UniProtKB/TrEMBL annotation:
SUPFAM superfamilies found in the cross-reference section: Acyl-CoA N-acyltransferases (Nat)
Record CDD domains: NAT_SF
Domain N-acetyltransferase: 3-143
UniProt entry keywords in alphabetical sequence: Transferase
Organism, as annotated: Paenibacillus protaetiae
GO molecular function: glucosamine 6-phosphate N-acetyltransferase activity
Domain of life: Bacteria
PROSITE patterns for the chain: GNAT
Keyword DNA repair: no
Protein name as it appears in the record: GNAT family N-acetyltransferase
Pfam families membership: Acetyltransf_10 (PF13673)
Keyword Transferase: yes
Length: 143
């Protein structure tokens, strides 16, 4: 069973950072000193559990009229259970209900572009490089 919660404690935030370090730094080669950035404190972080085990994370912050979805990742052993979709849904809910924003935006890795497209995101940029990984900007209206 998948459950996505808003991070409320230091322990939950530490767990979120651990998952991000595992996926982005160890697995994808992103530099550890850029993974945790100056936006951490202004973001709402979410943590996904699969059968009670921490499995994935994401964060969202207000950026103009957009809820900017960031740092969405799922640990490799949990990638077949719909956790990414649940994380995106929770981040969109926070953007719409808590931040009061009409649109969502994200910079997705190009390999994940079809995943986000299935969730209603539209690509609005050419491919660009971020930390040596090709990305595209995608947007969606929040109902």
């Amino acid at each position: 069973m998948v459950e996505v919660i808003r991070v409320e404690t230091k322990e939950q935030l530490d767990e979120a950072y651990r998952i991000r370090m595992n996926v982005f730094v160890e697995e994808q080669g992103v530099s550890a000193d850029v993974e945790i950035d100056e936006h951490e404190d202004e973001c709402v972080h979410v943590l996904a559990y699969y059968n009670g085990q921490p499995a994935g994370v994401g964060r969202v912050r207000a950026l103009g009229e957009y809820a900017k979805l960031e740092r969405i990742c799922v640990l490799a052993e949990f990638r077949k259970y719909g956790i990414g979709k649940a994380i995106v849904a929770k981040l969109e809910q926070v953007g719409r209900e808590q931040l009061g924003l009409p649109k969502a935006k994200l910079n997705g890795q190009t390999h994940a572009e079809p995943f986000y497209a299935k969730l209603g995101y539209e690509t609005v940029s050419d491919v660009f490089m971020e930390e040596g990984i090709p990305h595209v900007t995608m947007v969606k209206k929040l109902a």
